[in-house]
Amino acid sequence: MQWPQHSSELIGREPEMGALADSYQLAGESKPQAVIISGEAGLGKTRLVQEFQHGLPHEARVLVGQCVDLGPLATPYAPIVAILRALAADIGVAALMELAGPGGDALALLLPEAGVAGRPGPSPNRVLEAVSTVFEKASVSRPLVVVVEDLHWADDSTLAILRFILRAFNGGRFLLAMTYRSDDVHRGHPLKAFLAEAERGRYVKAVALARLDRGQVRQLMEAATEDAVDFEFVENVFARSDGIPFFVEELLGLGDCAAPGDLPSSLKDLLLARYERLEEPVQYFLRVLAAGGVSVRHSQAELAFDHPQEEFEASARAAQRARLIDVDGECYSFRHALVREAIHADLLPGERTRFHTRYAQALEAAGAIHRDAAEIAFHWDAANDVEKTFASSLAAMAQARANFAYSTAAKMGERALELWDRVIDPSVVAGIPQYRLMARTAAAHSLAGDGERSLAVIRLAAADPSATGTDRARLLAAQARYLGFNAKPGSDALLLEAIELTPPGSDDILRASLLNSLAARYMLEARLQQAVETSTAALSLSSSSGNAAEQSIAANLRGVSRINAGDIAGGRSDLEAAERLAQGDTQALLRFRVNYSDILNLLGLYSESIQVAEAGIVKARERGEERTSGAILSSKAVDPLFARGDWAGAQALLDRNLSLSPPSSFHAYLLRSRIWSTLWGGDVPGAEALFRQWQPLLRALAGVEMQSRLHLATLGAELAWAGGRLDAAWQEACFLLDPEFLPLPGYDLPLLAVAARVLAARRRAGARIDDDAGRLRAVLDRDSFWPTHPAWQALFDAELGGPGLDGGELAAWHRAGTFSAVLPAHLGPYIAWRTGQAEFASGRRSEAAATLSAAVEGAEGLGALLSARLARNFAAQAGLSLDGPKQRHGGDGLTERERQVLALVAGGLSNRQIGEQLFISAKTASVHVSAIMRKLGVSSRIEAAARALSGQPGKK
User: Fold this and answer.
1) Are 864 and 680 in contact (CB under 8 A)?
2) 43-57, 596-610, 871-885: which has the minimum mean pLDDT?
3) Other beta carbons less than 10 A from residue 497's beta carbon
4) Among candidates 616, 541, 609, 537, which has minimal Cα distance to 572?
5) Rounded to whole angstroms, how far apart are CA atoms 934 and 555?
């Protein structure tokens, strides 16, 4: 007897269905969710998702995309394109493009049928933003469930989009469900890194399917046969299927399998058993279909099938009746990929060549919209046609580069390079010499994030003796660029050689670009005079050639270098010119805004710095790049927000931008801010753990950037100081006295203050400090032109005040306090703590208690809990009470601190000046003023001041 092998019931998957239902419910509350479903082949991942879909309410829109099994050279974006096309079929192409907004041109790269023209050029970032934006907006009107099947076959570009969605999705009723074969994801598989990151996500749930137990196998058998089954039958099927539902159903589909001898002897035999029972014409049809993949379009299968047409249709129906394939719209799909793989593995060599050749030809004949260069290359490779594989790999590489699928482009380039020596006249076929193909492949590797491979390939290209003159210069410039990207030394020498190979008049556009690259290296290395000279040469050359983008970059680099070298007015003039010249060039504008925001922060102009970054974010939003290039700009607002006293805003930006995984250098800068804010937030062990984790990345960047080296020294010294390891702290801070140190005032001055703090602490601990204080002061004096120098000098003097250079001079701390509004906000409470210590040492107990109380309040208002804890600990050791009565009599409800603030308001002080007096931030002062006005029932500071001066603040 033969039973229907497919059960109408889903057995043993109740917890997994419950997990999917819970995620859908949360998504319906505008809390975007993702579920990653894993399991061995045959456990029913697709069946689980299908049953879940069937149970969804009518309002839910479900879109499904299938990853394609083309080996390591999968078609870029295949499941994403299928999902977008399904959405376009549902709502119309015009409505889809409207959802994409400014990213419509980027979306048209994936959907050529959209035919968008006349828009600004797309970019890789805009492709990510466009897809994410479409899903986000489509999920506002009704719930959207996006299913991506078989992630183990996904290409890197598809994974990049999914990764971005998981990081950047802001809202909407959205559920992303993904499936993959766990037994196919071995160590080193590209999906491993994606899964490791994704499964840590806040809204991501991992669902792992297990094999069925003996009881569940019995349930499945009885559901499929609609009859009771005996013990021996269950035991035989359970033993042969290992509890894998697909195998259970396949065994049932073979007929009476009660006796062990009736069962297939191997997995392959099991998978092919029903196929081999079919007539030969149907088997032939399935062999042709298997060469096309898991899912094959009717038009392609028909062209690949070389038997009579009537045989095609009859065989398709027979295969469908045998439940080996399903017909889904215009496609024939194998019911299970394992069956397709078994049939394909059983092809004879001649069949393999013939079938894949016909598929390649069918795809080449397809219209432009459906022509897939990667799939064509796959079929020519499977057909063992070297010449056609080489040519089609080059075409696929070009198509992938145009679509920003850089990982696929790199792999196609590598395959073409492997075939180079086996092809007749490869340079004629390629249209370029081998070293240029290497250069393009290296560039694709770099853009795909594979830094080591990009360097290996570009070194091979640069070693080619046939590359001479400006061609060699370009190769050397690329090698220098990749060294910089990977935080490795050696760029300068390569760029100098490249410039020598490009004399004036040979290629002025290239020479200007090379000069700018060298100037950028000099700027990062703090070789400021050389940076100014080199960028000036680049500016002159690019001006004569009319290259506005290179002019902007040159003016930008020279401006930053001049400011750091002491010419602040001249540098700001250069930066203003850089902005004008960058108009119309997205990358030049991004570079300007990043550098200008950074330098304004270093100059102590925190609000201006934030404004520049925010203006850039607005422009990025208009271009549809808010969560990509906009994230780079918003990352530059993190430090000035901390410095201005908006710790909550800074922490929110920090969390957001770290989740978006910006480029490596910006990632390192954000990690440094995370470690620093964790330290000053009071979690010293947590900060030390983060530092240990990320120290290799931070030290690698410090090896090629002086600003990163100085930042790292400051962070390392403060961590060691907070942990009580004073000698280790000094080892970090004394980099200022190292022969390799080169000055960058905006970075030197904070490190000098920390170095003075550490030196004084070592002095108090009994260590000899010799002439270290004098040597540090010499560095401090060299930075005297910097606008914030007086404030940092006051703090430096306070740290090393007193005859013993131990920081005990009260007057010095009072003077440092007058600069609290100029210095980063976290130093206000720190200075108050140190002032309180000095007041206590001078016998002024009540003043010390008040100052330490102000330190605690200011620190807690910011979130800088390290200073609060230090102040509380000192007060406890000194026997000082910081918890006096909070309210005074009079019926007005004002606290003691609010009365202090009110008195200063009556004196005409601004919030900033009040903050300086009370060692709190201007923002905290503003909060107090608002509370005072609310409690007094007045609408202005003038009215509040009048109440205070009348001596009756509580009078209504």
Assistant:
1) yes
2) 871-885
3) 17
4) 609
5) 50
Q: Which residues are CB-neighbours of 846 under 8 A, at least 6 positions away?
A: none
Across 466-473, average pLDDT: 96
Query: For residue 251, what pLDDT band results from cuts at 50, 70 and 90?
Result: confident
Residue 227 is predicted with a pLDDT of: 83
The C-alpha atoms of residue 83 and residue 160 are separated, in whole angstroms, by 16
Hey, what are 438's tokens?
């290497």
Query: Residue 945's beta-bridge partner residues?
Result: none
Cβ contact 624:107 at 8 Å: no
Q: For the residues of 613-682, what is the DSSP string, one character each? A: HHHHHHHHHHTT-TTTHHHHHHHTTHHHHHHHT-HHHHHHHHHHHHHT---HHHHHHHHHHHHHHHHHTT
> Which 3 state secondary structure label does DSSP give 172?
coil
Express as a percent the part of the chain with pLDDT over 70: 93
Q: Angle formed by the axes of helices 93-100 and 78-91, to 10°?
A: 120
Grouping H, G, I as helix, E, B as strand and the rest as coil, residue 502 is coil
Lowest-confidence segment of 17-26, 317-326, 569-578 by average pLDDT: 317-326
CB-CB neighbours of 204 under 10 Å: 18
Which tens digits make up the pLDDT trace of 401-457?
Answer: 988 889 999 999 999 999 999 999 999 999 999 999 999 999 999 988 888 999 999
Asked if residues 823 and 796 have their Cβ atoms less than 8 Å apart, the reply is no
CA distances 515 to 185, 485, 539, 588, 617, Å, are 46, 18, 9, 16, 29
Distance of CA 687 to the CA centre of its chain: 21
C-alpha closest to that of 179 among 50, 75, 341:
50
Q: How far apart are alpha carbons 283 and 612 in whole angstroms? A: 67
- Cα separation of 929 and 941, whole Å? 8
Confidence category of residue 112, pLDDT binned at 50, 70, 90 = confident
User: Could you say which DSSP state residue 17 is in?
Assistant: H
* Beta-sheet pairing, 331-334 with 295-297: antiparallel
User: Looking at the predicted structure, is the pLDDT value of residue 809 above 60?
Assistant: yes
Helix (H, G, I), strand (E, B), or coil: what is residue 64? strand
What phi and psi values does residue 13 have, to the nearest 5 degrees?
-120, 25
565 within 8 A of 528, measured Cβ to Cβ: yes
Q: How far apart are CA 752 and CA 735, in angstroms?
A: 10
Can you give 701-752 as a three-state secondary structure string? HHCCCHHHHHHHHHHHHHHHHHCCCHHHHHHHHHHHHCCCCCCCHHHHHHHH
Terminal CA-CA length for the chain: 96
Question: Strands of 33-39's sheet, edge to edge?
Answer: 61-66, 144-149, 174-181, 33-39, 204-208
pLDDT of residue 120: 47
What's the Rg (C-alpha) of the chain? 34
Q: Under a CB-based contact definition with an 8 Å cutoff, are residues 85 and 92 in contact?
A: no
Which tokens belong to 954? 């509580």
